[in-house]
Specification:
With about 525 residues, this protein is mainly α. It is built from 20 helices and two strands. A two-stranded antiparallel sheet has the order 1-2. α4 runs antiparallel to α5. It is globular. The protein starts with a helix and ends with a helix.
Length: about 525
């Protein structure tokens, strides 16, 4: 089942590569059907996760046995929710892309679909991988694929932004690989070299090796911090988001950034418990600085897409704060479990909400050619569906109770408070800053006198097939776009109203990681 989940998008991509490019409806329709099937499959995997902890549906086979590398997949309370979030985000992206802006070139549309099918495969593969080399392969492939998405379908200085994204994250991944090698070689005196994550967690191969363990954590931490990204290695993120297409920004924020934070709870914490405890305060400080820096810089942005990009640094800074706080053993297991559980909920929540926000900024760029906040005013009248969905996504992002953002942030702050009270209070200031920046954007864009770019006021050119989803002359969301954003926000609302949907699955895995860190 797990192999089929990540392999199916590649199989569909291979089939579609043989379909004539002119059959655009077939290509887009197959993509949509596949993403629906992936959501169903992810749901089955989630329900199979043992509620007492542990992995479900494990697949293990030798891959390069001479070097201790295996093909090992498994789903637990950390991976299953992130796989489900990934599947939902790609379904939303497929819905939002039914009408491609480059419909005059069907070959480009097909290439676009093939890239996103491959991205879904590697995104799911990262969260299911239980071997460090397998994790690294999926991790690196995501970088290559996103480079082509930004460079091929972006805007502005897209080539420069794509290259900056690639160099930053690829070099970071190479440093991370060095840390993996140190871990694997360190296991040689404990039963032989291995890259298997559960085996390494059980052996704790670098226990008592202070300098070696610290170097391994530094290498792995740098690679994961760049991908997250954490201040001060965040500078690749704003230009990449600003110049990427809306679908690319949605996947980059929702899925690729989570590969970094997921790596902390899957690899760094359980495999290097001693070094993690020693460096816990460093991660706490980096998390808090990321929270405040991202919020303050976002508050100064004039472009909505760039503003949302900086809020990602803030939201994922909370995750880094929480996992750092989990390294303070004196805080007690209950608080630390709550911090890790809240961090994982925040990963899922951020993926859903920020993907919705980027899809909405993409609508503005398609309608009016710009996402500058000052270019849009009084949208509540001509664009009511956009206004309602944007307001709901903004409130979810700023942590309004009843939505997933509140559940994640409240849980991780409550869990971090016993360990690092002063730093947690400082991080909580980011909530007020986030509220200020989103309320400012809502007031500026939805209220006041009507002011739209001239291009958005012109009626659209009628199109046939899957593209006929908008009334002539209306700049508002089409049915497919409304469904895409509505799906993401409905999931956020479900988590906000019934958080046990997530927490009962995550908490046992969090307890196991906290126990491993306490060794």
């Amino acid at each position: 089942m797990l192999t089929a989940l990540w392999l199916a998008p590649l199989v569909v991509a291979a089939v579609l590569a043989a379909v004539p490019a002119a059959r655009r409806e077939v290509v887009l329709g197959a993509w949509l059907v596949l993403t629906v099937a992936e959501v169903v499959g992810a749901g089955f995997v989630w329900t199979a996760v043992p509620r007492a902890g542990g992995f479900a549906s494990e697949v293990a086979a030798p891959w390069i046995p001479a070097f201790g590398v295996g093909y090992h997949l498994g789903a637990d309370g950390f991976s299953a929710p992130l796989v489900a979030m990934t599947a939902v985000v790609f379904l939303a992206v497929a819905l939002g892309s039914l009408r491609r802006p480059d419909v005059e070139d069907p070959a480009r549309t097909r290439a676009f679909v093939l890239l996103f099918l491959a991205l879904e495969a590697v995104g799911i593969g990262v969260f299911l991988a239980l071997d460090l080399v397998l994790f690294f392969v999926f991790f690196d492939l995501s970088i290559v694929l996103m480079y082509f998405v930004i460079a091929g379908w972006g805007s502005g200085a897209r080539t420069r932004s794509a290259l900056q994204f690639f160099l930053y994250t690829f070099l970071g991944s190479l440093v991370m690989l060095l840390g993996f090698l140190v871990l694997a070689v360190g296991a040689r005196d404990h039963g032989g070299i291995t890259f298997d994550i559960p085996t390494l967690a059980a052996r704790n191969p670098l226990a008592g090796q202070g300098v070696t363990g610290a170097l391994a954590l530094a290498a792995i931490g740098i690679g994961l911090a760049i991908k997250t990204p954490v201040w001060p290695v965040h500078t690749w993120l704003p230009p990449a988001h600003t110049d990427a297409p809306a679908a690319g920004s949605a996947v980059l924020a929702a899925v690729l950034l989570k590969m970094g934070t997921y790596g902390f709870v899957r690899i760094a914490m359980p495999l290097l418990p001693g070094p993690w405890r020693s460096a816990a305060l460093v991660f706490v400080v980096l998390g808090v600085v990321s929270v405040l820096w991202g919020a303050l810089v976002a508050l100064a942005q004039r472009d909505l897409k760039r503003m949302v990009a900086y809020t990602s640094i803030t939201h994922l800074g909370y995750v880094v704060l929480a996992v750092g706080a989990a390294g303070f053993v004196a805080a007690g297991p209950e608080a630390r479990i709550l911090a890790v559980t809240g961090a994982t909920v925040q990963m899922v929540s951020h993926g859903l909400i920020t993907a919705a926000l980027f899809l909405l900024t993409g609508v503005l760029r398609r309608r009016g050619g710009t996402s500058e906040i000052a270019a849009w005013s009084g949208l509540a009248g001509p664009m009511p569906r956009f206004s309602w969905t944007f307001a709901l996504a903004a409130f979810a992002s700023l942590g309004l109770p009843g939505l997933s953002g509140f559940v994640g942030e409240f849980s991780l702050l409550a869990g971090s408070l016993p360990a690092v009270p002063v730093w947690t209070v400082l991080a909580a200031l980011g909530l007020a800053l986030t509220a200020a920046l989103f309320l400012r954007a809502l007031q500026a864009m939805l209220l006041g006198d009507r002011h739209l770019p001239a291009r958005a006021e012109r009626p659209p050119v009628p199109r046939a097939g899957l593209a006929r989803f908008r009334a002539p002359g209306s700049p508002d969301l089409r049915v497919a776009e409304t469904t895409a954003v509505g799906l993401l926000l409905a999931c956020s609302l479900a988590v906000g109203v019934a958080p046990a949907l997530l927490t009962t699955t995550i908490a046992p895995a969090a307890a196991q990681v906290v126990a491993l860190v306490s060794r």
